[in-house]
Amino acid sequence: CVLDVRSSLLAFSFPLAGVHRQVLFTTVGWFAGYFLAKRTQYVHAKKDREMFEYVRHHPEDFKTAGKKRIGELLEDFIPIR
């Protein structure tokens, strides 16, 4: 009788089968995503730093244009009928 109850309880363990793999893959995926995101941020920060340093050393290549009014930037509005 005890063996029948035990075997019936063990027979219903299939919903728990594979949970360890799901936990493992979730953990591995989280760590991989975390480090890939950190690397991406590092690469972009390095590129930004190099570009800003170049702009700082070569200001003649990056002259700012004079300020324009909004009317000078937009085309004249001509309604079409």
User: How do the helices and strands follow one another from N- to C-terminus?
Assistant: HHH
DSSP, total strands: 0
Low-confidence region ranges: none
Question: How many angstroms separate the termini?
Answer: 91 Å
Count of helical stretches: 3
What is this structure's SSE topology?
Layout: H1 2-11, H2 19-57, H3 70-73
GO biological process, one term: mitochondrial electron transport, NADH to ubiquinone
Organism: Asarcornis scutulata
Transmembrane segments: 19-37
Q: How would you describe this structure to a colleague?
A:
By secondary structure, this protein is an all-alpha fold. The protein has a domain at 25-59. Helix content is 65%, strand content 0%. The protein has 3 helices and no strands. The longest helix is centred in the middle third of the chain and has 39 residues, at 19-57. It is elongated.
Q: Would you summarize the structure shown here?
A:
The chain crosses the membrane at residues 19-37. This protein is an all-alpha fold. 65% of the residues lie in helices and 0% in strands.
Properties at a glance:
81 residues, mainly alpha
